[in-house]
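Ticket 4471: requesting a sanity check on a complex prediction with adenosine-5'-triphosphate. Repro inputs:
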Amino acid sequence: MYRSEDHRTFAAPSENGVEGPGEQTAADVWARVKRRLRAELGEDIFASWFGRLELDSVVEGCAYLTVPTRFLKSWIESHYADRVLAVYRSETGDVDRVSIGVRNTLGRDPAAGRRAAEAPRPAPAASMAMPSIAGEMKSAATAAPLEERGENSDLGGAPLDTRLTFDSFIVGRSNALAHAAADRVAHAQNGQAIYNPLYLHAGVGLGKTHLLHAIGHAVRAQGRRVIYLTADRFMYGFVASLKAQTSLAFKERLRGIDLLIIDDVQFIQGKQIQQEFGHTLNALIDAGRQIVIAADRPPADLENLDERVRSRLAGGLVVEVSALDEALRTSILTTRIEALKTIHPTFDVGPNVIAYVARAITANGRDLEGAVNRLLAHATLTGSAITLETAETAIRDLVRNREPKRVKIEDIQKLVASRYNVSRSDILSERRTAAVVRPRQIAMYLSKVLTLRSLPEIGRRFGGRDHTTVLHAVRKIEKALGEDHALSDEVELLKRMLQE
Ligand SMILES: Nc1ncnc2c1ncn2[C@@H]1O[C@H](COP(=O)(O)OP(=O)(O)OP(=O)(O)O)[C@@H](O)[C@H]1O
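Returned structure tokens:
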């Protein structure tokens, strides 16, 4: 759950607190802030700490940022708060404070952002110390819904999200191996440990957590004991048990389970905790208990982790989930939209819009989900059908950092040819059949609007035609676009595909 009281605000000295609306949107500024942080801190640090930092809203000079875990929040607050604020202030006069909160990741509730914006704002606090471990344990336990507690929360385990199952996981080229390995581990004969540990790694939002939860559900359904922990919960659990001097230490209790799942293992910090983590791994593996780990990088790149732990992690099966390819993105979108249609029967998204979203949102599954939620919000609020144009507006803030690409005439000819099922040489030829003339004119039109080439130059590239022929084609298509919606959608889609 989003906890507004957890927000701590870092205020800048007031003389620079210039207010006032800027031309650019808050999302544009935020994209620039992230780019600068990445450039200043380097890819590694950025990915570890800022990859999942998101802008919720900017209200009255305060940028409300969110992260998925309390651990990340504490870490950024204690190590990077000043830096984030400084970069922000150098990019805009609209922000003079930054506040970091924990967003709801398990609930994946599209209304969370809005609730966050509506939540009462806390007063600025001076202290940036790490919250107390005891406090963390308490709130971690109270955060879990009652029915989800039990064995899991005794050990500080996190609940499994009921939506993240094998059934709802879509398999494609980029995740087939990870899926196959997860499936084998989850359905091993007699619960025998295989590939121990199974180590999945991938960039943000590519489905690691989804696979971990799917394994957890499947194993639990076989009546076996499963603990799912994020790295921060592992650390808090361990430290809390030390503090409380419980007779049965945390690691001893962990050893009584059948499957231990640890997510985001790159966040395991601290020498003693790492040692303990290593002991726990060894004890469980030696006892034949299955371990499944996920991280944002391969074991060899976990620089802060003890060498022996690293090699133990690398000693099972290490599988990467690579970026979601376009076909997979299309299937994920289609499946989500179909699922939503059962609840909202009027929600209709045409294949051209799905194709556009699948091309525009390349980053990760979470953004795909965000895009579908925005389309749904748009459809239900306006009651109108979703066109390419409305889709573009609805998902604009998710289409990140796209530098306009230089488009080549040759690429235009190839794409248009394949789209209309003719060959590129047909387009360059003298043939005048309708099946070739229209695509040729579209390709000329696109060459005019997407490149800086002159009409004579375009004519030369289209089989040595005169510039008046190109001009005629451009005018003809421009006129047709105003009259023919299907053509206008089609040309819009081609433009986007070329600029991708
Ligand atoms: N192959 C897939 N099929 C269905 N949904 C997917 C798939 N891959 C990712 N998703 C969805 O994308 C969203 C993000 O995935 P997930 O939370 O598993 O990412 P992650 O790799 O754990 O990222 P992070 O490192 O940020 O935690 C989830 O809603 C998930 O259900």
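Notes from triage: Strands lie at 8-11, 54-59, 62-67, 97-102, 198-201, 226-230, 259-263, 290-295, 317-320. Leaving this open until the requester confirms.
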